[in-house]
Specification:
The protein has 214 residues and is an alpha/beta fold. The protein has helices at residues 24-31, 48-61, 71-76, 86-105, 119-127, 143-148, 154-159, 190-203, and strands spanning 36-41, 66-70, 109-113, 134-139, 181-183. It is built from eight helices and five strands. α2 packs across α8 and α4 runs parallel beside α5 (119-127).
């Protein structure tokens, strides 16, 4: 009996990209700031979500249009069909890159907090947008520090073989080679980490100086 091979998902061919009637530049002028993708990457427990949300609060207090894309939240909906194999991780980050690009076009500063362990996936996300639109922020906390912050007990389960493909234990994390920012989130206090991110945004002229951070 002949075995049927699994067919890949069909791709639409009769589609055309429609330009918005209100372009990104017009939105930027109205809001008084540029849009940008802040891509927080690092091990589980390195402080990605904590820092992204703290930066989000600081920007919101100063009137900037922002949104946080968090790894767990995305997997509740957009990526709930994906697991944690290398292939699924790649697809997860591909989708996030595309969604982030849409937020960028909408004039929003989008902050993404994902482990995103593989360099090629992060570079693919970067390649979707202009060279000044993507800021990679490496949350550099040692594995030992990350494990002490593990409120979910994931590292312990991974070491016991209960979780497969866990980054840092049974799956690799490829450290960014030249991120726009490398922040020692394992040792620095959160307000200092926020200041470093805000300073980078001011330096790149995405925002003006802010009056209140935390």
């Amino acid at each position: 009996m002949e075995q049927k091979s699994q067919s890949p998902l069909s791709k639409a061919t009769n589609i055309v990209w429609h330009q918005s009637s209100v372009d990104r530049e017009s939105i930027s002028k109205q809001r008084g700031h540029r849009s940008s993708i802040l891509w927080f990457t690092g091990l589980s427990g390195s402080g990605k979500s904590t820092l992204a949300n703290a930066v989000n609060v600081a920007l919101h207090k100063n009137g900037y249009a922002t949104y946080v894309l968090d790894g767990d939240n995305i997997r509740h909906g957009l990526c709930k069909d994906l697991g944690f194999s290398d292939v699924d991780r790649e697809e997860n980050i591909r989708r996030i890159g595309e969604v982030s690009k849409l937020f960028l076009d909408a004039g929003i500063i989008v902050l993404t907090a994902f482990v995103s362990p593989f360099r090629v996936d992060r570079e693919n996300a970067r390649s979707l947008v202009g060279k000044n639109d993507f800021i990679e922020i490496y949350c550099s906390a040692d594995l030992s520090v990350c494990e002490t912050r593990d409120t979910k007990g994931l590292y312990a389960k991974a070491r016991n073989g209960e979780i497969n493909h866990f980054t840092g234990i049974s799956s690799p994390y490829e450290v960014p080679q030249s991120p726009e920012l490398k922040i020692d989130t394992g040792n620095l206090k959160i307000d200092k980490c926020v200041d470093l991110v805000i300073s980078q945004l001011v330096k790149k002229k995405i925002i003006s100086k802010i009056s209140d951070s935390l």
